[in-house]
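Example record

One chain of 78 residues, shown exactly as stored in the release files.
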Amino acid sequence: MAVLSAASLIWIAEAVPAAARDYRYCLQSRSTGIPGNCSFRTRAACMAAASGRMATCAVNPRVAFGRYHRRGRVNSGQ
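Predicted structure tokens for this chain:
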């Protein structure tokens, strides 16, 4: 049982960084707030997820204002 618990914790710990990545578009609704769920690479994918949910899509503010981290670097907008 302890081995199963340890394996589960390792699996969850490895999954978290991938889920925390921000992409260009954010799904925004009353439940997700602002900036919302920023896990969409394309506007089409975001709009498909927003369909029928009283939600909308917007550009991720980290991308719009040049604070998007990519490969350990900060985009200064230059």
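Notes: Helices lie at 2-19, 43-50, 61-64.
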